[in-house]
């Protein structure tokens, strides 16, 4: 006669329970899959979000888009080019940029698109780009600050800034600052800043803006997106009456390459892909803010799905916005109380101390803040512009 010890009995019961749980979970997933399949058209329609309905033409207009080699940046470039604009695609990876430009030309007959190199993680590259742009381009009617990185391992820009705040905020701040004079001379003109819903979860850590004390990639990303919203608010205040408007946008949760370096998030996005926007759908709000006639005089606002969107309390704090502007100006070696287009002879690092070595360091361009092959590979994976 077989006998079972208490331990064996418990194991048998535990095994049966686990099997039952697996069956229940499998059945539940099956039901969810069936529901999603039955209602997929409605779900996709809802997930697609708002659509820019404007039929405005942009013949004779000049648009500059950062990170235009892929994702919503490329789709924004495609849309504006199809409306007749001359589109300048500012990309870190020129080869990928040229591939995107070739695709746009194939899809839009007579498209006026060109690619220029811009590394937002290097202030030398930003200044060189702006200097050449100002020498060769007479007008600028639309500036879309689209490029960005998300949830990268801890790295620094060439100038020593934490990568998220350095690329997503500081780099675009400097670029906009240097081109603002041309935007004013080309008025009416518009600036579109691509932010994110993630700004709701961000806080500006003035005591450790560059995460030198502690680092969390998610929090660093959220801080940079909040900085985008605050920058938009303060810039709009400073540009009041200039006929240059600036608005920020949340593009939605988009199926793009932005998450390719995060395995966990990539898997999560794959599971819920039905609920994600395509790059074309994600570009709609950027296009809307760039061309919609009804936004002619609207500035300093936040949009999502081609409509005004909620801004978290920390994104509406005017004192924080001014403080961030001043801190950013110090990091960039600029004058906080002035918005102009001059190329300044000095710059600052994360400590805010001017180094005075701009001309020498920019002539011999630094291409990476990392000396190791591993670090450079990580940078390549994280850059999405």
TrEMBL record:
Gene3D superfamilies: NAD(P)-binding Rossmann-like Domain (3.40.50.720). It catalyses: all-trans-retinol + NADP(+) = all-trans-retinal + NADPH + H(+). It is an enzyme of class 1 (oxidoreductase). Pathway: Cofactor metabolism; retinol metabolism. The chain crosses the membrane at residues 16-36. Its EC number is 1.1.1.300. It holds the Pfam family adh_short. GO terms for molecular function: all-trans-retinol dehydrogenase (NADP+) activity. Keywords: Lipid metabolism, Membrane, NADP, Oxidoreductase, Transmembrane, Transmembrane helix. Belongs to the short-chain dehydrogenases/reductases (SDR) family. This is NADP-retinol dehydrogenase.
């Amino acid at each position: 006669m077989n006998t079972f010890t208490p331990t064996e009995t418990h194991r048998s019961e535990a095994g049966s329970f686990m099997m039952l749980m697996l069956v229940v979970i499998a059945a539940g997933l099956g039901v969810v899959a069936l529901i999603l399949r039955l209602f997929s058209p409605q779900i996709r329609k809802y997930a697609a979000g708002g659509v820019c309905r404007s039929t405005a033409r942009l013949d004779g207009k000049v648009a500059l888009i950062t990170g235009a080699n892929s994702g919503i940046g490329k789709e924004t470039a495609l849309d504006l080019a199809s409306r007749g604009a001359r589109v300048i695609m500012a990309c870190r990876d020129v080869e990928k940029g040229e591939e995107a430009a070739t695709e746009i030309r194939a899809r839009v007959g007579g498209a006026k698109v060109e690619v220029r190199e811009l590394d937002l993680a290097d202030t030398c590259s930003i200044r060189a780009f702006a200097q050449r742009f100002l020498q060769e381009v007479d007008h600028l009617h639309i500036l879309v600050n689209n490029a960005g990185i998300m949830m990268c391992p801890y790295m620094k820009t060439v100038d020593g800034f934490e990568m998220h705040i350095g690329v997503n905020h500081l780099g675009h701040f400097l670029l906009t600052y240097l081109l603002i004079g041309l935007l004013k001379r080309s008025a009416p003109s518009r600036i579109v800043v691509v932010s994110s819903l993630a700004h709701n979860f961000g806080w500006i850590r003035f005591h450790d803006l560059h995460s030198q004390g502690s680092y969390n990639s998610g929090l660093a990303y959220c801080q940079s997106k909040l900085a985008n919203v605050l920058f938009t608010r303060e810039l709009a205040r400073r540009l009041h009456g200039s006929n240059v408007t600036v608005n920020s946008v949340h593009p939605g949760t988009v199926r793009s390459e932005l998450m390719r370096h995060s395995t966990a998030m990539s898997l999560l996005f794959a599971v819920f892909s039905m609920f994600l926007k395509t790059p074309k759908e994600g570009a709609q709000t950027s296009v809307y803010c760039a061309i919609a006639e009804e936004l002619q005089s609207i500035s300093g606002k936040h949009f999502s799905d081609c409509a005004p969107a909620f801004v978290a309390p920390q994104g509406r704090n005017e004192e924080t916005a001014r403080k961030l502007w001043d801190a950013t100006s110090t990091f960039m070696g600029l004058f906080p109380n002035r918005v102009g287009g001059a190329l300044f002879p000095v710059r600052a690092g994360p400590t805010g101390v001017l180094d005075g070595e701009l001309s020498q360091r920019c002539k011999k361009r630094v291409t990476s803040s990392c000396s190791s092959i591993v670090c450079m590979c990580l940078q390549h994976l994280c850059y999405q512009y």
